[in-house]
Recover the amino acids of this structure.
């Protein structure tokens, strides 16, 4: 394999260690962790690459070193690849502005200290994110991860690198070639098999250009995606958060968020979706990140020392 090295300088604060611990806590199926290195396969310009990311700076003076490994890499757009990785790793976000916003609410302010420097690590591409979000509908994280692994096993081959077997998430074309019965054999429900494969076929056939979504507003994207079979508001909102990195989404129907709001605000009962939207109106323009941190108060898988 050929190799390429890139240095990225995130906006401070940036705690890569917390981000790694969170991925471990949710048992993210795409990542392998070796010491303080984060390793996964990515797709870029038709290439499957191994990404090896490591912090070589500090939380307040952050620096990431990214090593990429693959075949025929000499013609890759190095600057474009760097921008792509910066997006996935949320390095350009001015998170201090978010912490300034939290400081305006005494109930939210402690989240800034507890999760200082924690950011989203986005899914590697938009198709991967939507496929996983559909798969994860109304399932616990563990079984959703199992179904993700089974999809990869039936649709793609892993990459073997430095003694590790690294899964490769299938492209839309890979999934479009599957039959519903193949996923049914892997414990997918009939509807979920149809939703995943039909979405893949729509993207593969050009009926939906995912890249064009970057030019649309959150509400435009929610409205257009919600017209597709198997995609509702919650799915579209999670896609915007974990696939596109949009910072002002409030998936108020999410049970975990409603439980977190009950705990954080000292409510006697779990709030309704409407009540969460009322409470969360003050979270703008950082609703995604407040949601993220509220979720983490329930998971509590992040190092805080």
């Amino acid at each position: 394999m050929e190799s390429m090295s890139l240095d990225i300088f995130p906006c401070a604060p940036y705690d890569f260690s917390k981000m790694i611990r969170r991925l471990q806590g949710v048992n993210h199926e795409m990542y392998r962790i070796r010491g303080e290195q984060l390793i996964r396969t990515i797709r870029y310009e038709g290439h499957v690459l191994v990404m090896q990311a490591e912090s070589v700076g500090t939380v307040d003076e952050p620096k990431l070193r990214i090593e990429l490994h693959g075949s025929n890499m000499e013609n890759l757009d190095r600057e474009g690849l760097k921008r792509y990785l910066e997006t996935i790793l949320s390095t350009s976000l001015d998170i201090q502005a978010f912490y300034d916003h939290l400081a305006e609410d005494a109930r939210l302010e402690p989240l800034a200290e507890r999760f200082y420097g924690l950011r989203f690590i986005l899914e590697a591409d938009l198709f991967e994110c939507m496929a996983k979000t559909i798969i994860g509908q109304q399932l616990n994280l563990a079984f959703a991860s199992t179904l993700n692994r089974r999809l990869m096993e039936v649709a793609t081959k892993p990459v073997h690198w430095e003694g590790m077997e690294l899964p490769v998430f299938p492209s839309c074309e890979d999934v479009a070639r599957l039959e519903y019965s193949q996923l049914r054999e892997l414990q997918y429900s009939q509807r979920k098999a149809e939703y995943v494969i039909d979405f893949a076929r729509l993207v593969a056939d050009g009926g939906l250009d995912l890249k064009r979504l970057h030019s649309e507003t959150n509400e435009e994207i929610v409205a257009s995606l919600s017209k597709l079979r198997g995609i509702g508001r919650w799915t579209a909102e999670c896609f915007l958060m974990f696939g596109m990195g949009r910072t002002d989404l409030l998936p108020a129907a999410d049970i975990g968020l409603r439980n977190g709001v009950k705990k954080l605000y000292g409510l006697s009962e779990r709030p309704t979706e409407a009540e969460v939207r009322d409470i969360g109106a003050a979270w703008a323009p950082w609703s995604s990140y407040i949601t993220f941190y509220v979720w983490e108060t329930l998971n509590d898988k992040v190092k805080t020392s």
Notes: The radius of gyration is 19 Å. DSSP finds 14 helices and seven strands in the chain. The longest strand covers residues 47-55.
